[in-house]
Amino acid sequence: MLRVGVVGIGFMGMVHYLSYQKLRDVQVTALCEKQQKRLDGDWRDIKGNFGPAGEQMDLSGIETFTEVEDLLASDVDLVDITLPPALHADVAVRSLAAGKHVFCEKPMALKVEDCQRMTKAAEQAGKLLMVGHVLPFFPEYQWALQVVQSGQFGKLLGGSFKRVISDPSWLANFWQPDQVGGPLLDLHIHDAHFIRLLFGMPNSVSSCGSQKNGLPEYWHTHFDYGESGPVVHATSGTLRQQGRSFDHGFEIQLEGATLAFEFSVTGDQADYHCPPTLLAAESKVEYPQLPDGDPMHAFAAELGEVVASVQRGTSIEILDSALAQDALLLCHKQAESIQSRRRVEV
Ligand SMILES: NC(=O)c1ccc[n+]([C@@H]2O[C@H](COP(=O)([O-])OP(=O)(O)OC[C@H]3O[C@@H](n4cnc5c(N)ncnc54)[C@H](O)[C@@H]3O)[C@@H](O)[C@H]2O)c1
Q1: What is the average pLDDT across 185-208?
Q2: Per residue in 83-126, pLDDT tens?
Q3: Helix axes 112-125, 321-340, angle to 10 degrees
Q4: In 171-301, beta strands by DSSP E
Q5: Which atom in ligand 1 lies closest to the alpha carbon of residue 132?
Q6: Containing structural domain, residue 189
Q7: I need a labelling partner for 257 at 20 to 30 A (CA). Which of 98, 121, 227, 251 fits?
């Protein structure tokens, strides 16, 4: 039985806690949170943009701590970090030094140097460091990854990726560069990671867009893979209007097929603008039947892989910290490109 300590009982801490309850061979044995009422089980004021509303929880049998150090002295095998991004690196390094495996929510950290510090700590401790990039566990992205990796439609020629939300002005510190990092590190990092997973690292990025509080606000990026490489593009950011709280999608080109999908929440309507669609040779159009897109299922699948990775002793590629660090680097290169209005080598 793998013993897990979850650090940070906010929206993601609750999602992870609930997801572990659906899995075998794992038990949340400890929680760490600075708000005492959450340790007393009062999660009624926790809310996010999916999943169940927070409830009064029965946490009997679970050790609770307000200080990370005390959780690290307990017998947990894995520390699951669902803290605000600015705290990820320090808590991960301390957890690894205490001999714990670490699973950390995205973004891995705010700075690449912090990612390097985390990786070094994992190497020194001989423990696993995994990062929660959940997008490839969502049915549409899982489908695309499987189709591309199967090789059945030949070479990958390129792709266009979109992730745009209404400005989440209700999220504390969202526009603070040293706390959350705006839509670049909170939002686009999902696509940066998926692009890295599908295409590898580009030679350079060219981005242009608007800025808010010194952070990219709404922008377009061309990821340059050289003359004969894939052509890759992303549109990301926030809208100043509240009417469309979420929009994401892709169009991925292969030699023998194009994969497309776009989903958005406009007003109170959550719907596909384009259902997952496969355009194949001879005008053939297919609509694959994908599993239920409830994000809670994606998190349960992700955490199932975390548990399996610890049991096996190696992380799967999607959760690999090296990829998460590359995704962060791609984000920072885009910010640099927007600010300098120049192409930036990666
Ligand atoms: N994968 C996704 O789709 C997704 C979605 C939302 C959030 N996230 C990520 O999850 C992480 C957490 O985001 P969230 O929305 O849950 O934030 P949140 O603010 O809801 O929760 C963070 C919790 O950490 C607690 N905390 C802060 N400092 C602490 C400390 N020193 N010790 C103990 N507890 C402390 C806060 O009191 C709060 O309860 C972020 O990295 C975010 O990017 C990922």
Answers
A1: 98
A2: 999 999 999 999 999 999 999 999 999 999 999 999 999 999 99
A3: 170
A4: 204-212, 215-224, 231-239, 244-254, 258-266, 269-279, 285-286
A5: 1
A6: 135-292+327-345
A7: 227
Region of 108 on the Ramachandran plot (φ > 0 left; ψ -120 to 50 alpha; else beta): alpha
**pLDDT tier at 171 (50, 70, 90 boundaries)?**
confident
Specify if 319 maps to a domain. no
Question: Quick one: 101 and 161 in the same domain?
Answer: no
Pair 61, 25: CB distance under 8 Å: no
CA of residue 195 to ligand 1 center, whole Å: 25
pLDDT tier for residue 75 given thresholds of 50, 70 and 90: very high
Domain count, the chain: 2
DSSP helix/strand/coil, 159: strand
| Residue 81 confidence (pLDDT) | 99
Q: Give the three-state DSSP class for 172.
A: coil
End-to-end CA distance of the chain: 42
Assess whether the C-beta atom of 9 lies below 6 angstroms from ligand 1: yes
